[in-house]
Amino acid sequence: MPWILGLKFLGLAVFAFLFFRSWSTVEAAAESIASIPATAWGAAFLASLLSLLFAAFRTGALLRAAGGHLPVRSLFADLAVATALNSLLIAGVEMVYRTERVRPTVDSLATASLVVVGDRLLGLMVMILATVVLFFGLGPTDAVMNTTGLLLGTVALLPLVGGILLLPRLPERWRRGPERLFATARAMARHPMALLSAGMNSIISFVFGILIVVAVGHGIGIEVPLVTYFYMVPVVAMATVLPVSIGGVGVREVGYVFFLGAAGAEAEGQAVALGLAQYSVFLMTSVVGLGVLAQRHLFSKRHPSDKPPKAPNTPNAP
Q: Is 309 within a domain?
């Protein structure tokens, strides 16, 4: 864990150096952010909340397939907290938090872990498919750009393929956890309608995630075709998964400079402003999550005897 955090801060320092060495870019980015009207901020914030709402529907569908249940408002609040943890800390912390929230409603920790990990993987799968379909279908035909998209997609798939290939070769004690997860996944597969609902909600959540960037990009005055956002945003979002920055800061800006430049946008400052404005929307959403976290903390202190609903007695795994 310390080395990952160190790598993130090192990456953030490198990106800061790349941008701040050109003061004119910093000034242009600041002016662009200041020019965003309140209506654009409001539209982006609303799109962020709607993206979380449909992600909550997705989590709820997966939870039903696993035999558990939580109200959508509770799942939405959990995702708001997760956004705060992911934006302000390091990726992974929010998954531990969400697993703890889901655990009392299902039969085992393995099931709770699968619901949360499956929720994240489903979102990533939609992102990867969107990257392949939208980038190669709508994106530029330049060979360098196509090669870049192919490499990013390959890098995103390597951990999944590598994990599947290496699992049979792992020592038995290391295989137990993944094997329990696979058994739970087989049980969840018996509920295809719930899984279909999760997939549809994931797509809608993804579209609202793109509309966040469309709203702030329009507010900044970036003049590129709308389809540019639909192939640019998923590729950049995939790149921010790499552990080389805090909250994706730096990676996001470099990606937008690259893609907007290829799409014909001339102002580098606007591209940097687009990434920073998107992160600002995440921080605005994080305020909602921090408020939920504070409210839950105060409630638990006043009502220490209150507990989450008990898990069902009948296990889901065969």
A: no
Structure token digits, residue 174 = 């290391």
| Total-model pTM | 0.77
Q: CA-CA-CA-CA torsion for 151, 153, 158, 163, nearest 10 degrees? A: 180
| pLDDT interval class at 316 (50, 70, 90) | very low
Name the residue with tokens 């039903």.
64
19 in a structural domain: no
Place of tokens 């539209």: 43
In 3-state terms, what secondary structure has residue 29? Answer: helix
Q: Does 153 map to a domain?
A: yes
Is residue 49, in this structure, part of any structural domain at all?
yes
Q: Can you list the alpha helix ranges (DSSP code H) found in the chain? A: 2-20, 23-34, 38-65, 72-88, 93-102, 109-130, 136-138, 143-166, 172-188, 192-220, 226-239, 251-262, 268-302
Give residue for tokens 């939609």: 126
Q: Which residues contact 222 (CB under 8 A, 6 or more apart)?
A: 260, 265, 270, 271, 274
What digits encode the pLDDT tens for the residues 41-73? Answer: 999 999 999 999 999 999 999 888 888 888 898
**Which one, of 28, 30, 48, 51, lies nearest residue 40 by Cα?**
48
**Which of helix, strand or coil describes residue 248?**
coil
Cβ within 8 Å of residue 226, ≥6 positions away: 214
- Structural domain harbouring 255: 24-297
Domains identified in the chain, total number: 1
Whether 79 contacts 55, CB under 8 Å:
yes
Residue 219 to residue 217: CA distance in whole angstroms? 5
Q: Which two tokens stand for residue 72?
A: 């959508």
